[in-house]
Amino acid sequence: MIFPASNALQRTNYLNAQKGWWSWFWTIDHKRLGLMYLWGVFAMFAFGGFFAMMIRWNLATPDTNIWDPELIPAATALAKMDAYNRMFTVHGAVMIFLVIIPGIPAALGNFVLPIMLGAKDVAFPRLNRFSFHLWILGAICFILTFTVGGLDTGWTFYPTYSTGSAGKAVIFATLGTFILGFSSIFTGLNFVVTIHKLRPPGMIWFKMPLFLWAIYATAVLQILATPVIGISMLLLLVEYTMQIGIFTPELGGDPVFFQHLFWFYSHPAVYIMILPAMGVMSELIGTFSRKPIFGYKSIAMSSLAIAVISFIVWGHHMFLSGQSPLMSTIFSFLTFAVAIPSAIKVFNWVCTLYKGSISFATPMLYALSIIWLFGVGGLTGLFLSTMGVDIHLHDTYFVVAHFHFVMVGSAIFAFIGGIYYWMPKMYGRMASEKLGRITWALNFIGFNLTFLPQFVAGTKGMPRRYFDYDPEFAVYNWWSSIGAAFILVGMVLTLIAVIQAITRGRPAPANPWGGVTLEWMTESPPPEHNFEGDPPEVGDPYDVSLVEYKNELDGFVPAKPMASDPNMYDYRASLKAGVAHTNLHP
Amino acid sequence: MTATAHAHHGPAHLQHHFETSEQQFDSAKLGLWVFLLTEVLFFSALFVAYTSYRSLHPEVFAYASNYLDTNLGAANTAVLLLSSFTVAWGVRNAQLGQRKLLIMNLIITLLCAATFMGIKYKEYSHKYHEGLLWGGAEHSIFKHNQFMILDAVKEHSHAWNEGVPEAGVAAVKDLSNDQRRDVSIFFAIYFCLTGLHGIHVLAGMVLLTLILIKVLRRKITPEYYTPVDLGALYWHLVDLVWIFLFPLLYLIR
C-alpha cells in the first residue's frame, strides 16, 4: 500500500495516540466521540431497521385469514395485532430519537465541526462526553422497554392511552426520551458556544462553511425545543405513575394539551433532523461541482429562517384534534411559509450544479438523489398543510410516504453521503467507489419503490398504523415490500463498504475531494489536536481556486502554499525525500 | 489528554483548547446563559398549563388559592431573596479575593436554601394531611365521583369540612363533583410547579456545596472564579422562578 505524505496512518494520529477501550470510553476528544456516536447510530439503525423490515414483511400481503376464527384463533390474531403495534412503535421511536436526531449533528457534526473551525476541540469537551454517555443510557432505556412487555403507544405517546392502559414500557420509554433530550440539548449547547467563541480570527460569520450554519441553526432548535419535550415526558411520567391529572379528562386535564407540548418539540425536531442534512448537502454539492456554491448568504440565512418558522407551525399536526378553525388556518399558512426557505436551498443547489464540472463520486450521487427525494418529500408536505386536503390524507399512508421521503430519503441519504465524504478524514482511507455506487443504486431504487406506491395507497385512503388492509391496496403494499428488500440489501452492503474501507481501503490523501474547508487542510486522519501547529489561514470556504489537483498525490493541495502547514503543500520536498506517490487513478 | 501531546503555556486552570483565560471564561458564561434559557423553556410548559387552565376556570383558581398559606409563601420569598443577595455578594468577594467573606456568604446562601426546603416540607405535609392533593392521589379530597374518597381523610380534613371560615370560603364538601375536579387541577399544577422548583433548589444546593468545597480547597482565586460566577447565575434563576411562582399561586384570590 502506498501512503501519501499527507496520510498519517503510519504516524501518530488521533486513532492510535492512546490505546485501550477505556481511552475510547472516557475520551474527551470530539473526533473519537463522533466515531462512537457513529457506531452507536449504526447499531440503532440496524435495530430500528429490523422492525421496519418486520413491518413490511407483515404488510407484504393482506391477511385475509385473520378475520376467520376457524382458521386463526382470536387469541392468536390479537397477539399478532399487538406485536404489530409494538413493531411500528419501536421502529418509529428508535429511528427518530436514536438514529436521525443524533445521526448527523452528534456523529458527523462532532467529528467535523471543531476541525472546520480550526479549533482543537468543542468548547466543553467533558460535557460532550457526558452527552454521549447520556445517549447510551437513553438507548439502554429503550432496549429495556422490551423487558416489560414492549411499547405500543406509537412514538407520539399520546395520552390517554399512554397514561392509562398502556404497559409499564411507557416508564422506560419516557425516561429514555427525557435522557436523550438532555443529550441532545448539551450537544446543541456545546456547538453554539463553540461556534461563537472558538472561531479562528479570520473566520467571520459569512466565511463559515454552510455545514456550520446548518449545525448552528440545528443547535438553536435543540436548545429551544428539546426542553419542552423534556418536561412533557416528565409530566407524562408523573401522570402515568401518580395520576397527576393534567392530561386526563376525568381528573380535569386535557389530552390535547399534551399534543400541543409534544408537537411544539416534535415539529422543530423534524428540522433538527433535516437541517444538518441540508448542511451536508451544501458541502457535497459545492465540492463536487468544482464551482463556488451559488447563493451562499441565502443558503445560510434560509437555515435560520427554517429554524425560526419551524417553531410556529406545530398546529398542523393537530388539524383534526378539535383546535379552533382560526388556529388551524394560521398554522396552515405558516406551514406554507416553510416551503420558501426550503425551496431557496434547493434552487441554490441546482444553480450550483449549473455549468459546474460535476464529479459523480459516491457522496455526490447521494447528494444528487436528495434533490429529487427532498423535492418530492417537501412538495407533498404542501398537500398536507392544506387543511381541506389534510382532512382526507390525515393518518393515511400518504403521510407515511411524505415523512419518509424527508426523514429517510433526505436525512439518512445525506448521512450516508456524509459518511462517504468524511470517511477519508475519519479513518484515513477511501471507501470503494464501485461498491459505493452499487449500494447507492440499490438504496435509491429501493427507496423510491418502497415509498412512491404509498402515496397512491394513502390517497386512496389506506390508513397508517393498521396491521392489515383491504385487498384493494394489495398491489401497492407488495411493491412497497419489494422495495424494502432492496433497501435491506443496500444498507447491509453500505455497512460492508464502510467496514471494508476501514480495514482495507486505499490510504487517503489529506484532501481527496477538493474541499476548501479547513478539515481538508490537515492530515488524514488528523492528529490528536486536529492540526500540527497552528491551524491554516482561513479563506473563502467555497473558493475552489484555492486548491488544485495534483496527479501524483491523487488529491488536492492548496494552490498557494501556506507557510503554517508543512504537510499540506510540501509534496515536492517529500518526493525528493523518497516518499512514494503514485497516481492511483489511471 | 496528556500534557505532553500538546504543551501550552498559561495558568493551570486554562484548558488545552482555549487560547486565553478570557476566552475560556466567556465560553463558560455563554454556555451557562444558554443552559438557563433551556431551564426557562423547561418550566414554560407548566406555566402554559397554568395559564390555559386558569383562563378556563379563573374562579376555581381564586378559590383554591385560599388553601395556600400566604405567610409561609412570603417567608420563603424573603429567604430566597436574601440568598440571592448573599450569593451575589459572594461573587464580588471572589473577584476581590475576600476568602472568608466568600465562605460566609456561601454558607448563608446554603442555609437559606435549606430553610426554604424546610418551609416547603411543612407546606407539603400540611396539604397531605388535609387531602389537598391532585385528583388521582389516594388521599385526595378532590377525587372524581367514580372514585371513593377515604373516610379517614374526610374526617380529619379541615378543608373538606369547614373550608376557610375567616375568608368566607366554602368547604370542599359543598362543591359539586365537577368543581372538585377543577380544583384538583390547581393542586396538580401547584405540586408540579413547586415540586420541579424544589428539585432545582436541591440541585442548586449541591452545586453551591461543590463550589464551597472548591473555595475551601483554595481553588478559587481572583484570576479564576468562574465556578462561583456560574453557580450564582444558576442560583438567581432558581430564585427568579420562585418570584413568579409566589404571586401566581399564592396571591390570586
Kindly describe this structure.
The complex is a heterodimer of chains A (586) and B (253). Chain A has 586 residues and is mainly α. Chain A has a single domain, classed as Cytochrome C Oxidase, Chain A (Up-down Bundle). Chain A has 16 helices and 4 strands. In chain A, a hairpin with a 4-residue loop joins β3 and β4. Chain A starts with 20 loop residues before the first helix and ends in a 10-residue tail after the last helix. Helices cover 70% and strands 0% of the residues of chain B. Chain B has a domain of 161 residues: Cytochrome c oxidase, subunit III, four-helix bundle (Four Helix Bundle (Hemerythrin (Met), subunit A)), CATH 1.20.120. Chain B is mainly α. Classes of the chains: A mainly alpha (586), B mainly alpha (253). At the A-B interface, α5, α6 and α7 of A face α1 and α7 of B.
Strand content of chain A: under 5%
**Poorly predicted runs of chain B:** 1-7
| Main sheet record of chain B | none
Into how many domains do the coordinates of chain A divide? 1
- Mean pLDDT across the residues of chain A is 92
Mean pLDDT of chain B: 92
Number of helices of chain B: 8
State the assembly state of the protein chains.
heterodimer
Give the biggest sheet of chain A: 2 strands, antiparallel
Strand order within the widest sheet of chain A? 1-2
Give me the number of helical elements of chain A.
16
Large-scale geometry of chain A? globular
Query: Could you say what the CATH topology of chain A is called?
Result: Cytochrome C Oxidase, Chain A
End-to-end Cα distance of chain A, whole Å, is 16 Å
- Proportion of helical residues of chain B: over 70%
CA radius of gyration of chain B is: 23 Å
| Rg from alpha-carbon coordinates of chain A | 24 Å
Elements of chain A, N to C (H/E): HHHHHHHHHHHHEHHEEEHH
CATH architecture of chain A: Up-down Bundle
